[in-house]
């Protein structure tokens, strides 16, 4: 249960974005979240969490900066914030939450909510919704917690297919932070968004079991949407190329999500996927290292969910 921490020096800064820094610590790849741990410069003395990379996990190709001993100590809290993210852990920090300053509606009548079980469904789902609609992305726990890790979200913003990113629950570093999935959906309604795409962050927590995986966040999103009068659309996880039998055809993850949905949900038909390649052209499509030519069914199904949501807008 121990953290695997190691001290080192930043030997290179590879990419610098306001919300994400890719660097090297003692020549090993590392990511840093400067809005959480402060700025990073070459030569800084840092502490990094090396456990995922040392375990050779699928999501563990890099270390994560834990603390910058050179310029990351005594950082001030966000002004006016008092609600903690990751409370009572070594990474707890206060963040302003939308519920503190925004009057939230009690319902979101008719708002379509796309419920994804994987982050790699977000790009095709947003492509299915298309331009001209105001779309919010709600990141739910179940994969990566930092919203700022997602290159997909940055690309969708640049293309005008996504307009705000909400960090829900334990997720961190979003444009907006909400305590719960329900309040995230209500905030999006109050802020004038037409639809919300819900998903977990990059990667997924998984145990090879029917109920022990992060994709069940899609059921949580669907149930919250149903309870508030929205119209949940479940993005089916479909694959023709996955080597694992449990994920070929309709994944057992989607079957579990649908079994846990307490209200009426919509699942797209194959006909809703028409034109998906053209709509997704130039967008980053990747799932388990497979692109649209190696596993077209996966991306077509997610696109179809977005198209259904767009049709619900009239």
Helix count from the secondary structure assignment: 9
In angstroms, what separates the terminal alpha carbons? 51 Å
Task: Tell me the structural class.
Answer: alpha/beta
Helix-residue proportion: 10-25%
3D architecture notes:
This protein is of the alpha/beta class. The longest helix has 17 residues, at about 295-310. Helix 4 links the parallel strand 9 and strand 10. Strands 11-10-9-12-8-13-16 form a seven-stranded parallel sheet, sandwiched between helices. Strands 1-2-3-5-4 form a five-stranded mixed beta barrel. Helix 3 (about 120-130) runs parallel beside helix 9. It has helices at about 35, 50-55, 120-130, 150-160, 180-190, 215-225, 250-260, 275-280, 295-310, and strands at about 5-15, 20-25, 30, 45-50, 65-70, 85, 95, 110-115, 135-140, 165-170, 175-180, 195-200, 230-235, 240, 250, 265. It has two domains: about 5-70, OB fold (Dihydrolipoamide Acetyltransferase, E2P) (Beta Barrel); about 100-310.
Give a nutshell description of this structure.
The chain is α/β, with parallel strands linked by helices and 314 residues long.
Write the layout of secondary structure elements.
Elements: E1 5-16, E2 21-25, E3 28-32, H1 34-37, E4 45-49, H2 51-54, E5 63-68, E6 83-85, E7 93-95, E8 112-115, H3 122-129, E9 135-140, H4 151-158, E10 164-168, E11 176-178, H5 181-190, E12 195-200, H6 217-227, E13 231-234, E14 238-239, E15 249-250, H7 252-260, E16 266-267, H8 276-280, H9 296-312
Parallel strand pairs: 3-5, 8-12, 8-13, 9-10, 9-12, 10-11, 13-16
Antiparallel strand pairs: 1-2, 1-4, 2-3, 4-5, 6-7, 14-15
């Amino acid at each position: 249960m121990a953290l695997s921490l190691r001290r080192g020096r930043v030997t290179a800064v590879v990419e610098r974005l306001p919300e994400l820094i890719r660097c090297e610590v003692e020549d090993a790849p590392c990511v840093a979240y400067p809005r959480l741990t402060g700025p990073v410069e070459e030569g800084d003395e840092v502490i990094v969490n090396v456990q995922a990379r040392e375990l050779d996990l699928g999501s563990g190709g890099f270390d994560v900066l834990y603390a910058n001993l050179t310029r990351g100590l005594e950082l001030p809290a966000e002004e006016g914030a008092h609600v903690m993210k990751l409370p009572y852990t070594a990474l707890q920090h206060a963040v302003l939450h939308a519920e503190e300053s925004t009057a939230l509606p009690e319902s979101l009548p008719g708002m379509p909510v796309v419920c994804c079980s994987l982050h790699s469904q977000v790009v095709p789902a947003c492509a299915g919704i298309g331009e001209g609609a105001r779309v919010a992305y709600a990141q739910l726990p179940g994969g990566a917690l930092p919203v700022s890790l997602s290159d997909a979200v940055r690309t969708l913003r640049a293309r005008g297919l996504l307009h705000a990113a909400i960090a829900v629950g334990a997720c961190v570093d979003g444009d907006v932070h909400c305590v719960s999935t329900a309040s995230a959906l209500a905030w999006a309604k109050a802020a004038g968004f037409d639809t919300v795409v819900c998903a977990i962050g990059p990667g997924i927590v998984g145990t090879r079991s029917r109920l022990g995986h992060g994709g069940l966040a899609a059921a949580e999103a669907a149930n919250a949407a149903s309870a508030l009068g929205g119209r949940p659309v479940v993005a089916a996880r479909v694959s023709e190329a996955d080597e694992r039998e449990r994920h070929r055809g309709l994944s057992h993850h989607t079957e579990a999500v649908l079994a846990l949905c307490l209200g009426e949900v919509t699942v797209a038909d194959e006909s809703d996927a028409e034109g998906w390649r053209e709509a997704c052209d130039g967008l980053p499509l990747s799932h388990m290292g497979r692109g649209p030519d190696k596993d077209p069914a996966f991306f077509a199904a997610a696109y179809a969910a977005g198209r259904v949501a767009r049709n619900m807008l009239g």
